[in-house]
Amino acid sequence: MIEFNLQNARFDYEPYPICYIPDFLKPEVYAELAATYPARELFHYSTNIGVKYSLSELNNSGNYYRFFEGVPAWREFFGQVKSREFVTRIASFLKEHHIDLRLDEFAYVKSLRYRRRDPLRRLLNTQVIRSRFEFSSMAAAGGGIMPHTDAPTKLVTLVISMIQPNEWNEAGWGGGTSVVMPKDRTRVYNHFNKYMPFKEIEVMKTFPFQPNQCVLFIKTYNSWHSVQPMTGPADALRKTLTINIESIP
């Protein structure tokens, strides 16, 4: 059983709930996962919100599932995250910090397929949630993620670094997750996730990008965040694992 260390979380509540969690996994577990992170050729190249490589249920799904079949450590991690127990643990953690999303009241499914097979649940309009898993890599040379607030279906996001010691120079290259706000405050409301150019926002705070950390935040109408354009070498990658707890329409 993989344990998630939530004891050292440091929360900010304004402009929206977000926390930084160092030493998120046991060192030996993190070391094995970081050392066996998927190779870049398995990923889907995307430029819709910034230049990045993605491997998930939605992007290169064949490679995604084959990867888990071949790497036991990641297969165990995947199985744990894709479970009701994981969502319950995160929900309890958030409640302890005065954030109650009532996730325990929702039905949980592992896949969109289950939702489609259950017409009664759809007829009764039962709220359904799942946890979703994405590997994401960005080139240190100019890579970044444009300011946005996330899709309305997302409820909670966890971004876990997946770099090995001395693999990333955060002081010189950047790569941290930034809390940002539009310079024009009339544009703060952004429930439906319109993207904004970097030049039109101001950075309120940046959480560093370091090994074995997690940045967790809540989707709100003003949960603006970004990864500012990075300035590292072309052969370096900012590697992360993103876990979303999301609702299914």
Give the number of helices: 7
Biggest pleated-sheet summary: 9 strands, mixed
Strand content: 25-35%
Spatial separation of the terminal alpha carbons: 31 Å
Overall domain count: 1
Order of helices and strands: EEHEEHHHEHHEEEHEEEEE
Low-confidence segments, given as residue ranges, are none
- Derived structural class: alpha+beta
Q: Helix amount, in percent?
A: 10-25%
CATH class: Mainly Beta
How does the SSE layout of this entry go?
Elements: E1 10-12, E2 18-22, H1 27-35, E3 44-46, E4 52-56, H2 61-70, H3 72-81, H4 84-96, E5 107-108, H5 112-116, H6 119-123, E6 128-139, E7 145-148, E8 154-161, H7 170-173, E9 177-182, E10 201-207, E11 213-218, E12 225-227, E13 237-248
Parallel strand pairs: 5-6
Antiparallel strand pairs: 1-2, 2-11, 3-4, 4-6, 6-13, 7-12, 8-11, 8-13, 9-10, 9-12
Keywords:
alpha+beta, 9-stranded mixed beta sheet, 4-stranded antiparallel beta sheet, 7 helices
Describe the overall structure.
The chain has 249 residues and is an alpha+beta fold. The protein has one domain (10-248): Jelly Rolls (Sandwich). It contains seven helices and 13 strands. The strands form two sheets. Strands 1, 2, 3, 4, 5, 6, 8, 11 and 13 form a nine-stranded mixed β-sheet that branches. It has a four-stranded antiparallel β-sheet with strand order 7-12-9-10, with no helix packed on it. Helix 2 (61-70) crosses helix 3. The radius of gyration is 18 Å and the shape is globular. The two termini are 31 Å apart. The mean pLDDT is 91.
